[in-house]
Design brief:
Structural class: mainly alpha
Radius of gyration: 18 Å
Oligomer: single chain
Number of domains: 2
Helix content: 55-70%
CATH topology of the largest domain: Rna Polymerase Sigma Factor, Chain: A
């Protein structure tokens, strides 16, 4: 049974943009740009590539706006476009043939109020976690885990973005967490 999307806060602007009111699409970009950029940056080789792919995502969304059928949230639909562009980018980029992109954002999670020993322990845990993600998880497992844990998306949204069944998303997240637990033992 397909779940109906919750009330989409972007729907009024989507309808206005479809009716030819260009300012409405600008409002959509303003609301979603940072989220799309962060989503892409976690998978891109550089900030510049992420910026280019973000711009390309919104151009593609604008071109295909009439194909948005409101069966999911507009933001989910846009992230699906971004995911397809990132997938194409990664398949064509030589730096992704043999390695994964480091997730430096994991190191920003420390609390500056801790003492130096606790900070060192926290840094060591983050380094082991980062190493576990890069060495033990396939790109598919990394994507699912990132979308669910760092982006805070529900399984249904992730399934729509990755164009896979919800059960597959749950399995990938479970396997990713299991592999990380084993790595961290």
């Amino acid at each position: 049974m397909r779940r109906l999307p919750a009330l989409d806060p972007d729907l009024a602007d989507v309808h206005a943009a479809k009716a030819g009111q260009s300012y409405a699409f600008t409002l959509l970009i303003d609301r979603l740009q940072l989220r799309v950029f962060r989503f892409i940056l976690r998978q891109a080789a550089s900030k510049q590539d992420a910026e280019d792919l973000t711009q390309e995502t919104f151009l593609e969304a604008y071109r295909r706006l009439d194909s948005f059928q409101e069966s999911s949230r507009f933001s989910t639909w846009v992230l699906g476009i971004a995911q397809n562009l990132v997938r194409n980018y990664r398949n064509r980029s030589p730096q992704f043939l043999y390695q994964t992109v480091p997730s430096d954002s994991l190191f920003d999670l420390t609390d500056q109020g801790e003492n130096p020993e606790e900070l060192l322990q926290q840094k060591n845990r983050m380094e082991r976690l980062k190493s576990g993600i890069e060495q033990n998880l396939t790109p598919e497992l990394q994507q699912a885990l990132t979308l669910v844990t760092l982006e805070g998306m529900d399984y249904q949204e992730v399934a729509e973005i990755l164009q896979i069944p919800v059960g597959t998303v749950k399995t990938r997240v479970f396997r990713a967490r299991q592999a990380l637990r084993e790595h961290l033992k």
